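Input/output pair, single chain:
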Amino acid sequence: MKYFRHFREYPFITVLIGSTLLLTLIGYLGKNNIYDGYSVDLWKAPQLTVVLESIKDRNYPWKIASSGNKEVDEVNDVSAFENDNESEISPDMGKQYGEDGHKKDTDNNKETDADIDTDTDTDTDTDTDAKVDKNTETDTDADTKQEDGKTTYRFTKVNTDYFDDALFIGDSRTVGLSEYSGWNNPTFYADSGLTIYDVFDKEIAVMDGKKMTIEKALEKKSFGKIYIMLGINELGTGNTETFIAEYKKVIEKIQRLQPGTILFVEGIMNVSRKKSDSDPIFNNINIKDKNDHLALLADNKDIFYIDVNEAITDETGGIPIEYTFDNIHLKAAYYSLWTDFLLEHGVVREK
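Output:
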């Protein structure tokens, strides 16, 4: 150790040690605000790995100064799932969700998110996710609604040929849909490890026998409808804020590449109750938090939010254990629940 007494003679080591200590300190200072969605095993990796991981997500250390502390009991206390009677839903979302965090269900019909009504009992003009009408069994003449001078659209039943010009983008769940839906005409750009952060980077689209990125494929072929389900792989990376910010960028790019397309933001499919209760990261509390924010991206004109959990999950909010082989993915026989849900939630816009 005598060779390290004079640090000026070893500037690289000095900088390395100093930056390690600094990043570790930043990680601890920001663990309750900008790094609250990151997880690290301190026995295997130092706190600075959180800082480095967040930089990769464009979540830079200097944001600490402008970030307030946020409670992270949802992540740290998985058992709270059992007692989550007061869900953390924004006031705008309250009209769509019940106290248990699930879509309200009356008259034996599922609520649909796209049927927008104006809330006349409030003075605020920010209630874009207002009351939801549940008449999904309508003809195309009743599938539009005027709101603030803008035409919005209800969900309606459709046939399988509705998906002939549809594109499904997603991770391993969408890979399963492509294999077990029985639908041959839709296009699927899906990969087991796909995330919202690398959706345009991976060469997973196949066109004319050639692999290319989804961005390149969208430049070559137009689609009438585009469905996106991403988010399960992102639960251990970043936080809801960074996830939604990146999701918005993806939507904006798709709209530039595919002007006029109907875009469906699919809620992240839940995991089983067993998985949710035992995993501090991949649990239904974290999924619900992201889904609540994804729902706010819908304008019910060009962008629509749909949540297949309405058709798949049981009273616990999880995938029934008999539906899944690994507590995360559906068994082949139960993909029909997903396809039936999609057939109930088409959007037919005026020409």
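The first strand starts at residue 105 and ends at 106. The two ends are 78 Å apart (CA to CA).
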